[in-house]
Design a protein that fits this description.
Layout lengths: L5 E5 L4 H12 L3 E6 L9 E4 L8 H5 L2 E6 L9 H13 L4 E5 L12 H10 L2 E7 L11 H9 L1 E4 L11 H13 L7 E4 L7 H12 L4 E4 L2 H10 L5 H15 L9 H6 L6 H7 L6
Parallel strand pairs: 1-2, 1-4, 2-3, 4-5, 5-6, 6-8, 7-9
Protein backbone atom coordinates (compact mmCIF):
# COMPACT_ATOMS: atom_id res chain seq x y z
CA UNK A 1 0.00 0.00 0.00
CA UNK A 2 1.13 3.51 -0.78
CA UNK A 3 2.22 5.66 2.19
CA UNK A 4 -0.37 8.41 2.27
CA UNK A 5 -0.47 11.95 3.54
CA UNK A 6 -3.78 12.51 5.27
CA UNK A 7 -6.95 10.76 4.15
CA UNK A 8 -10.12 12.79 4.53
CA UNK A 9 -13.04 10.52 5.40
CA UNK A 10 -16.34 12.28 4.80
CA UNK A 11 -19.14 10.76 6.84
CA UNK A 12 -16.68 9.37 9.38
CA UNK A 13 -19.43 8.61 11.91
CA UNK A 14 -21.60 6.74 9.37
CA UNK A 15 -21.99 3.10 8.44
CA UNK A 16 -19.12 2.83 5.95
CA UNK A 17 -17.18 5.96 6.93
CA UNK A 18 -16.61 4.84 10.52
CA UNK A 19 -15.43 1.42 9.38
CA UNK A 20 -13.18 2.88 6.68
CA UNK A 21 -11.61 5.34 9.12
CA UNK A 22 -10.98 2.59 11.67
CA UNK A 23 -9.30 0.35 9.09
CA UNK A 24 -7.14 3.20 7.80
CA UNK A 25 -6.00 4.04 11.32
CA UNK A 26 -5.26 0.39 12.09
CA UNK A 27 -3.05 0.28 9.00
CA UNK A 28 -1.10 3.34 10.18
CA UNK A 29 -2.57 6.01 7.92
CA UNK A 30 -3.35 9.54 9.05
CA UNK A 31 -7.07 10.22 9.00
CA UNK A 32 -9.10 13.41 9.15
CA UNK A 33 -12.54 12.38 10.35
CA UNK A 34 -15.19 14.68 8.89
CA UNK A 35 -18.69 14.90 10.30
CA UNK A 36 -21.29 17.59 10.82
CA UNK A 37 -20.41 17.90 14.52
CA UNK A 38 -16.70 17.19 14.23
CA UNK A 39 -17.20 14.14 16.44
CA UNK A 40 -13.93 12.87 17.99
CA UNK A 41 -12.68 9.52 16.70
CA UNK A 42 -9.79 7.85 18.56
CA UNK A 43 -6.57 8.23 16.59
CA UNK A 44 -8.05 10.56 13.97
CA UNK A 45 -8.15 14.33 13.60
CA UNK A 46 -11.81 15.38 13.89
CA UNK A 47 -13.09 18.19 11.72
CA UNK A 48 -16.52 19.71 11.28
CA UNK A 49 -17.85 19.24 7.77
CA UNK A 50 -21.17 20.03 6.17
CA UNK A 51 -21.80 19.50 2.47
CA UNK A 52 -24.11 22.52 2.48
CA UNK A 53 -21.67 24.85 4.27
CA UNK A 54 -18.71 25.64 1.98
CA UNK A 55 -17.05 27.48 4.87
CA UNK A 56 -16.26 24.05 6.37
CA UNK A 57 -14.67 22.62 3.23
CA UNK A 58 -11.19 24.14 3.09
CA UNK A 59 -10.31 23.24 6.67
CA UNK A 60 -11.35 19.65 6.00
CA UNK A 61 -9.29 19.47 2.82
CA UNK A 62 -6.12 21.24 3.98
CA UNK A 63 -3.17 18.87 3.70
CA UNK A 64 -5.18 15.89 2.48
CA UNK A 65 -4.18 13.96 -0.61
CA UNK A 66 -7.01 11.40 -0.67
CA UNK A 67 -10.71 11.63 0.07
CA UNK A 68 -13.43 9.09 0.82
CA UNK A 69 -16.76 10.55 -0.21
CA UNK A 70 -20.13 9.69 1.28
CA UNK A 71 -22.82 11.77 -0.49
CA UNK A 72 -25.26 13.89 1.51
CA UNK A 73 -28.06 11.65 2.72
CA UNK A 74 -31.47 12.11 1.14
CA UNK A 75 -30.40 14.62 -1.51
CA UNK A 76 -31.80 13.75 -4.96
CA UNK A 77 -29.19 16.00 -6.62
CA UNK A 78 -25.93 15.63 -4.63
CA UNK A 79 -23.85 16.76 -7.61
CA UNK A 80 -24.89 20.35 -6.93
CA UNK A 81 -22.80 20.43 -3.75
CA UNK A 82 -20.34 17.62 -4.41
CA UNK A 83 -18.88 18.77 -7.72
CA UNK A 84 -17.80 22.24 -6.47
CA UNK A 85 -16.26 20.52 -3.42
CA UNK A 86 -14.35 18.06 -5.61
CA UNK A 87 -13.04 20.85 -7.80
CA UNK A 88 -11.83 22.62 -4.67
CA UNK A 89 -10.27 19.38 -3.40
CA UNK A 90 -8.28 19.03 -6.60
CA UNK A 91 -7.15 22.65 -6.37
CA UNK A 92 -5.93 22.14 -2.80
CA UNK A 93 -3.88 19.06 -3.71
CA UNK A 94 -6.09 16.01 -3.34
CA UNK A 95 -5.06 13.50 -5.99
CA UNK A 96 -7.26 10.47 -5.31
CA UNK A 97 -11.00 10.28 -4.66
CA UNK A 98 -13.09 7.24 -3.76
CA UNK A 99 -16.84 7.74 -4.05
CA UNK A 100 -19.53 5.69 -2.35
CA UNK A 101 -22.38 5.17 -4.81
CA UNK A 102 -24.79 2.25 -5.28
CA UNK A 103 -25.09 -0.80 -7.49
CA UNK A 104 -28.53 0.52 -8.40
CA UNK A 105 -27.13 3.81 -9.79
CA UNK A 106 -25.08 3.62 -13.02
CA UNK A 107 -22.57 6.18 -14.21
CA UNK A 108 -24.52 9.22 -15.38
CA UNK A 109 -27.67 7.95 -13.68
CA UNK A 110 -29.81 9.80 -11.15
CA UNK A 111 -28.53 11.29 -7.89
CA UNK A 112 -24.88 10.32 -7.29
CA UNK A 113 -24.62 8.93 -10.82
CA UNK A 114 -23.73 12.42 -12.06
CA UNK A 115 -20.85 12.63 -9.59
CA UNK A 116 -19.66 9.20 -10.75
CA UNK A 117 -19.67 10.45 -14.32
CA UNK A 118 -17.59 13.53 -13.47
CA UNK A 119 -15.01 11.87 -11.21
CA UNK A 120 -12.56 10.63 -13.91
CA UNK A 121 -12.29 14.12 -15.38
CA UNK A 122 -11.45 15.59 -11.98
CA UNK A 123 -8.87 13.10 -10.69
CA UNK A 124 -6.24 10.89 -12.30
CA UNK A 125 -6.67 8.43 -9.42
CA UNK A 126 -10.21 7.45 -8.51
CA UNK A 127 -12.70 4.70 -7.78
CA UNK A 128 -16.46 4.46 -7.43
CA UNK A 129 -17.74 1.89 -4.97
CA UNK A 130 -21.14 0.58 -6.04
CA UNK A 131 -22.27 -1.74 -3.26
CA UNK A 132 -25.58 -3.50 -3.25
CA UNK A 133 -27.84 -2.85 -0.27
CA UNK A 134 -26.20 -3.00 3.18
CA UNK A 135 -26.71 -5.99 5.47
CA UNK A 136 -26.67 -3.45 8.30
CA UNK A 137 -30.05 -2.17 7.07
CA UNK A 138 -31.45 -4.96 9.26
CA UNK A 139 -29.26 -4.40 12.32
CA UNK A 140 -28.54 -0.67 12.55
CA UNK A 141 -30.68 2.47 12.38
CA UNK A 142 -32.30 1.90 8.96
CA UNK A 143 -36.11 1.86 8.80
CA UNK A 144 -36.06 -1.92 8.26
CA UNK A 145 -34.10 -2.49 11.47
CA UNK A 146 -36.26 -0.06 13.42
CA UNK A 147 -39.53 -1.67 12.38
CA UNK A 148 -38.15 -5.15 13.02
CA UNK A 149 -37.29 -4.11 16.57
CA UNK A 150 -40.65 -2.41 17.09
CA UNK A 151 -43.06 -4.73 15.26
CA UNK A 152 -41.17 -7.85 14.18
CA UNK A 153 -41.69 -6.97 10.52
CA UNK A 154 -40.33 -4.92 7.64
CA UNK A 155 -41.86 -3.97 4.30
CA UNK A 156 -40.69 -3.60 0.69
CA UNK A 157 -42.08 -3.50 -2.83
CA UNK A 158 -39.45 -5.98 -4.04
CA UNK A 159 -41.79 -8.97 -4.44
CA UNK A 160 -39.77 -12.08 -5.26
CA UNK A 161 -36.78 -10.06 -6.45
CA UNK A 162 -33.36 -10.96 -5.09
CA UNK A 163 -30.55 -8.81 -3.65
CA UNK A 164 -27.00 -9.88 -2.82
CA UNK A 165 -26.79 -7.78 0.35
CA UNK A 166 -23.22 -6.81 1.31
CA UNK A 167 -21.57 -6.36 4.70
CA UNK A 168 -20.50 -2.75 5.43
CA UNK A 169 -17.23 -4.15 6.80
CA UNK A 170 -16.52 -5.62 3.36
CA UNK A 171 -17.28 -2.27 1.74
CA UNK A 172 -14.81 -0.59 4.10
CA UNK A 173 -12.15 -3.18 3.36
CA UNK A 174 -12.47 -2.43 -0.36
CA UNK A 175 -12.52 1.32 0.31
CA UNK A 176 -9.18 1.12 2.12
CA UNK A 177 -7.60 -0.77 -0.78
CA UNK A 178 -9.03 1.73 -3.27
CA UNK A 179 -7.66 4.62 -1.20
CA UNK A 180 -4.19 3.24 -0.44
CA UNK A 181 -3.09 0.67 -3.04
CA UNK A 182 -0.18 1.80 -5.20
CA UNK A 183 -2.42 1.84 -8.26
CA UNK A 184 -5.89 3.30 -7.98
CA UNK A 185 -8.68 1.14 -9.47
CA UNK A 186 -9.72 3.93 -11.86
CA UNK A 187 -13.06 2.21 -12.42
CA UNK A 188 -16.32 1.48 -10.70
CA UNK A 189 -16.50 -1.55 -8.40
CA UNK A 190 -19.79 -3.38 -7.94
CA UNK A 191 -19.73 -4.95 -4.48
CA UNK A 192 -22.07 -7.73 -3.38
CA UNK A 193 -22.34 -10.45 -0.84
CA UNK A 194 -21.97 -14.10 -1.90
CA UNK A 195 -25.67 -14.90 -2.37
CA UNK A 196 -28.73 -13.18 -3.79
CA UNK A 197 -31.68 -13.49 -1.40
CA UNK A 198 -35.35 -12.55 -1.54
CA UNK A 199 -36.67 -10.49 1.34
CA UNK A 200 -38.69 -13.49 2.43
CA UNK A 201 -35.34 -15.33 2.69
CA UNK A 202 -33.99 -12.44 4.79
CA UNK A 203 -36.97 -12.67 7.14
CA UNK A 204 -36.46 -16.42 7.54
CA UNK A 205 -32.76 -16.04 8.38
CA UNK A 206 -33.47 -13.27 10.89
CA UNK A 207 -36.15 -15.40 12.52
CA UNK A 208 -33.71 -18.30 12.86
CA UNK A 209 -30.82 -16.19 14.12
CA UNK A 210 -32.77 -14.09 16.63
CA UNK A 211 -35.27 -16.66 17.80
CA UNK A 212 -38.05 -14.10 17.23
CA UNK A 213 -40.51 -14.16 14.32
CA UNK A 214 -39.61 -11.66 11.59
CA UNK A 215 -42.04 -11.07 8.72
CA UNK A 216 -41.60 -9.45 5.33
CA UNK A 217 -44.67 -7.47 4.25
CA UNK A 218 -45.12 -6.94 0.51
CA UNK A 219 -46.23 -3.45 -0.48
CA UNK A 220 -46.80 -1.65 -3.75
CA UNK A 221 -44.34 0.96 -4.98
CA UNK A 222 -46.88 3.67 -4.14
CA UNK A 223 -47.27 2.33 -0.60
CA UNK A 224 -43.50 2.27 -0.10
CA UNK A 225 -43.17 5.83 -1.35
CA UNK A 226 -45.87 6.99 1.07
CA UNK A 227 -44.34 5.04 3.95
CA UNK A 228 -40.87 6.51 3.39
CA UNK A 229 -42.27 10.03 3.30
CA UNK A 230 -44.71 9.74 6.20
CA UNK A 231 -42.89 7.39 8.56
CA UNK A 232 -39.22 8.01 7.80
CA UNK A 233 -39.48 11.72 6.96
CA UNK A 234 -37.68 11.25 3.64
CA UNK A 235 -38.26 14.06 1.11
CA UNK A 236 -40.85 13.00 -1.51
CA UNK A 237 -38.46 13.17 -4.49
CA UNK A 238 -35.88 10.96 -2.78
CA UNK A 239 -38.59 8.63 -1.44
CA UNK A 240 -39.81 8.16 -5.01
CA UNK A 241 -36.26 7.28 -6.11
CA UNK A 242 -35.95 4.66 -3.34
CA UNK A 243 -39.35 3.19 -4.11
CA UNK A 244 -38.42 2.90 -7.77
CA UNK A 245 -35.29 0.98 -6.69
CA UNK A 246 -37.58 -1.52 -4.96
CA UNK A 247 -39.42 -1.94 -8.24
CA UNK A 248 -36.11 -2.49 -10.04
CA UNK A 249 -35.25 -5.22 -7.54
CA UNK A 250 -38.63 -6.84 -8.18
CA UNK A 251 -37.80 -7.02 -11.89
CA UNK A 252 -34.39 -8.65 -11.26
CA UNK A 253 -32.01 -5.68 -11.46
CA UNK A 254 -30.08 -6.67 -8.31
CA UNK A 255 -30.13 -10.46 -8.74
CA UNK A 256 -26.39 -10.83 -9.25
CA UNK A 257 -23.19 -11.50 -7.36
CA UNK A 258 -19.65 -10.31 -8.09
CA UNK A 259 -16.19 -11.43 -6.96
CA UNK A 260 -14.96 -7.87 -6.41
CA UNK A 261 -14.66 -8.10 -2.62
CA UNK A 262 -12.63 -11.30 -2.92
CA UNK A 263 -10.46 -9.87 -5.70
CA UNK A 264 -9.64 -6.66 -3.81
CA UNK A 265 -9.30 -8.02 -0.28
CA UNK A 266 -8.12 -11.59 -0.82
CA UNK A 267 -11.06 -13.14 1.05
CA UNK A 268 -14.66 -13.90 0.14
CA UNK A 269 -17.44 -11.54 1.22
CA UNK A 270 -19.38 -12.49 4.35
CA UNK A 271 -22.81 -14.03 3.96
CA UNK A 272 -25.97 -12.60 5.51
CA UNK A 273 -26.38 -15.25 8.20
CA UNK A 274 -22.81 -14.73 9.43
CA UNK A 275 -23.31 -10.97 9.73
CA UNK A 276 -26.70 -11.36 11.41
CA UNK A 277 -25.14 -13.71 13.96
CA UNK A 278 -22.23 -11.33 14.53
CA UNK A 279 -24.55 -8.42 15.17
CA UNK A 280 -27.29 -10.34 16.93
CA UNK A 281 -27.01 -8.10 19.98
CA UNK A 282 -28.46 -5.31 17.85
CA UNK A 283 -31.48 -7.41 16.89
CA UNK A 284 -34.24 -8.27 19.39
Amino acid sequence: MTPTGTVLVVGATGTTGSRTAARLLAAGHRVRAASRRGTPLPGAEPVRFDWYDPATHDAALAGTDRVYLVPPVGDPDPAAVMLPFLERARTLGARRAVLLSSSAVPEGGPAVGRVHQALPSLFDEWAVLRPSWFMQNFTGTHLHATTIRETGAFATATGDGRVAYVDADDIAAVAVRALTDDDAPNRDLVLTGPEALTHDDIATILTEVTGHPVTHHRLTVTEVRHRLTEQAGIPPEFAALLADMDHAIATGAESRTTNTVHHLTGRPPRDFRTVAERETALIP
